[in-house]
Design brief:
single chain; alpha+beta; 5-stranded antiparallel β-sheet; 4-stranded mixed β-sheet
Length: 283
């Protein structure tokens, strides 16, 4: 048995901010939800909902998901079926993005904190012309150990608990500014796929090898080491992980080609075992 492929469709219910970089007072958002962000959100939600938030379970659940799941990136969609890629639509920023300006308040003085004015960019739950925004992407679940209790409803056995993943997705918050209610999603659909293709029409094998054609675009980060068939910007992909001995720590960031980079000749990629959601060249 190999990996079972699902299409994830989520209705965006509130503004979504996925931190990219800060330029002066502006906190920019990414155009997508990285697989690493999805992995972290699922880990946290499962631990809180099924294991009473026990600190010792974060590492166990995170490692379990990293070993048995493969996380594609979530991209905005206007119909819940097709991604609205920014390199295909010049109006992406105009339709989908907005911003919120704020400044922290010191209530003991009844005044704002000086020098803390900031604007957070976000992907809005509705387009400027009133259409609903969705997030769609791909998810693969390993069935070799038989922990999938139901392939159709995607119930899985994790550490002795039966986890209903649709319920987990319906209670997720993704990205930043969550204390303001941002990043909420709902009405989750997990659709079992049989056509062996991802969003972006990339061929994928049963062992989750993604075969990108020449002229195609990356839909996830790709570790740039020894890659000669991709043209685009690169960036260090930073992120935190939890370890029972070290606590939360910053991993050494891999240097990656960013999503949207153009592929000049066909490449085969697989998901990194160290960095959830990130691709690397398959030898």
């Amino acid at each position: 048995m190999g990996f079972v492929h699902y299409r994830v469709v989520l209705k965006l219910l509130s503004p979504l901010h996925i931190g990219k970089r800060k330029y002066r007072n502006l906190m920019e958002t990414r155009d997508y939800v990285p697989g690493r962000t999805l992995w972290g959100a699922l880990t946290a939600r499962i631990v809180r909902d099924y294991f009473d938030g026990r600190k010792d379970m974060y590492e166990k659940i995170g490692n379990f998901l990293n070993e048995n799941f493969r996380f594609g990136y979530l991209w905005p969609s206007l119909d819940g079926e097709n991604p609205y890629f920014p390199w295909e639509h010049e109006d992406f920023d105009y339709l989908l993005k907005s911003g919120y300006m704020g400044q922290p308040v010191d209530y003991t003085r009844g005044a704002t904190d000086e020098g803390q004015l900031h604007e957070a960019e976000f992907i809005a739950p509705k387009t400027r012309d009133g259409r609903q925004v969705y997030l769609i992407g791909d998810l693969w679940v390993n069935d070799k150990n038989g922990f999938i209790a139901s392939k159709e409803t995607l119930k899985v056995q994790i550490e002795g608990k039966t986890v209903v993943l649709k319920d987990i997705f319906n209670s997720l918050q993704l990205g930043g500014e969550r204390s303001y209610g941002w990043g909420r999603v709902g009405e989750a659909r997990l659709l079992k796929q049989e056509n062996a293709r991802t969003i972006g029409n990339v061929k994928v094998t049963n062992d989750v090898t993604l075969n990108f054609p020449a002229g195609g675009r990356l839909t996830s980060h790709l570790i740039a080491n020894k890659v000669k068939s991709v043209m685009g910007e690169v960036e260090p992909l930073t992120g935190y992980r939890y370890d029972s001995t070290k606590g939360w720590y910053m991993q050494d960031p891999p240097v990656c080609f960013v999503p949207g980079s153009k592929i000049t000749s066909p490449i085969k990629t697989k998901f990194s075992e160290e960095f959830p959601g990130v691709l690397e060249i398959s030898e």
